[in-house]
Amino acid sequence: MKRLSFIIGLSGFVALLSACNEKQDLPDYPIQPVNLTQVEMTDDFWLPCIRTIQQKTIQYAFDKCETEGRLENFITAGQVMRGGTGKVRGTMPFDDTDVYKTIEGASYSLVNAPDVQLEHYLDSVIHIVGQGQEPDGYLTTWRTIDPANPPAKWIKSGGGRWFGLNMSHELYNSGHLFEAASAHYRATGKRNFLDIALRNADLLVKVFGDTTNYEVPGHQIVETGLIKLYQITGKQDYLHLAKKFLDLRGDNTHRKIYGAYSQDHLPVAEQDEVVGHAVRAVYMYAGMTDIAAIYNDSAYRTAIHNLWDNMVEKKMYITGGLGARHDDEAFGDDYELPNLTAYSETCAAIGGVYWCDRMFRLTGDSKYFDVLERMLYNALIAGISLNGTEFFYPNPLEADGKYAFNHGACTRQAWFDCSCCPTNLIRFIPSMPNLIYAVQDNAVFVNLFTSNTANILVNGKTVQITQETNYPWNGKVKINVKDAPKQSFSMKIRIPGWVLNRAVPCTFYRYSDATTDSYSVSLNGKSIQSELKNGYLELNGKWTGSDVVELNFPMQVRRVIANENVKDNQGLESIEYGPLIYCAEETDNADFDNIKLSAGNHFTVEKADILNGINLIKNGTATFIPYYAWSNRGVGKMKVWLPF
């Protein structure tokens, strides 16, 4: 696809974004992300990953949507509305969302890599989507085509629209439609997709906004989608419906509740344990955090803090993975974290990142980005192969080369009947630069470390910040502050928890080895020593416009042990290097079954050209690679937790 000028595309987007923001000052989070339109990536870790999605995975997914019948279903639905007949292709009631999520990822791609061909292609796909929408705005193709015969046996049959909402996924489809249409509108300024979404949202308001309708979604995400439409349009009905869907969960006064699988066992403000389907859960918690921020709701705020603490302190894998059980794709009991049979769905890691980011923007506490970073560099990007066309649905922490954990395979697969994870990666990875910086009043937060140039608006003035680093392979980070305004502003730099000898923001995982190394920070060559506040080093004062902040985080191999109540990890340790979890893979270790970590910290770190360039770690005769890179060289055994 022919690339156009980044600057031309960016200027158009900024003009659009300004026009949107001038509509009204809506209640929102106290801390706002610096949009990816303002961040140009230049690094050697994330930029190649983003480019792989842009240049390969997006078109790969659209091709799959065509050959697997995802696009055809929209056309068939249109034919049925005109009196024709047809059959549903595919086996999932949410196949429509694979199209939506790929459009969303492609839209983010257009922001930093304008492409006329891709934009025109999206217009054609959106036209096809529109053919499947009923006149009143309803849009779920399987129910339009053949409502009496659902594509999956586990969906209740015999009803019309909204029948069996727990599993019909009609509102889940709407949620991804809203998220994707919002991204497309902000990226292109075009209303073709947004108008489809708004017609559907208005139908939901008409049907579910009625005070006598007490139904709630089965699979959550429509809540955050509605809020994104509210943020674009200012239409209060969308916000109110999102809150209503959450407020009604767990209330059996007027309907039969779905139970813990769908987080519908208790009112959401009373929930304090993460339970049920992990993806449904974290999407709901993200929506609750939106409501806590916008409404300043103290009950929701208390609940999300309790839920997050329970997740991190008792139910999260060392990789940041979420969900212990294949059955129901669910969280297990406290401390239930098997390795070989771990589920740790890729979508759950993505949802976990979305939730952690919101928790940070609500509180300003770095612990949420400490966990976000762990998810990002491990459980999340492990879901996609280095070539961009093979995927993990679950992400176990151990493999024996025989157990077909990945929906029938014991290695990565090119696609799935249920391909929520590949398309979720497509929508997330191009948007990753949104996470690097944030602003609050006259403060700039630096949350992630990756080479980039950002133009950040602080109190109406632009500050240019450039990062130079080889993170995560190296702990040195240089931050150049240019074009700073004359008035002072503060820079809040996250000092990662792993730098502070803290694996996670609790004692669930902890380092078993000692370290005497400490980080250092200098400003214009002068050493800075300052007490951290909420995990941030704060630099205040007036900037000259040519200032240099240098960080030096000690990068060394650390040994990690789990809480003794995690039975599967008793007598075992894992190793990490900076934000990366490492694993042993059979490909590198001929005597794999006898690998044992030697006593002490006898590790060496070597730069290697394999797996797109990594740091290898060696301990005795054993070799370790970053967890995210495993299963890129064929089928074999793998372990994160090892005896010592």
Automatic annotation (TrEMBL):
Its EC number is 3.2.1.185. InterPro entries: 6-hairpin_glycosidase_sf, Beta-AFase-like, Beta-AFase-like_GH127_C, Beta-AFase-like_GH127_cat, Beta-AFase-like_GH127_middle. Residues 38-433 form the Non-reducing end beta-L-arabinofuranosidase-like GH127 catalytic domain. Keywords: Glycosidase, Hydrolase. GO terms for molecular function: beta-L-arabinofuranosidase activity. Residues 444-555 form the Non-reducing end beta-L-arabinofuranosidase-like GH127 middle domain. Residues 557-643 form the Non-reducing end beta-L-arabinofuranosidase-like GH127 C-terminal domain. PROSITE patterns: PROKAR_LIPOPROTEIN. It holds the Pfam family Glyco_hydro127C. One of its GO terms (biological process) is carbohydrate metabolic process. It is an enzyme of class 3 (hydrolase). It comes from the Bacteria. This is Non-reducing end beta-L-arabinofuranosidase. It comes from Candidatus Ordinivivax streblomastigis.
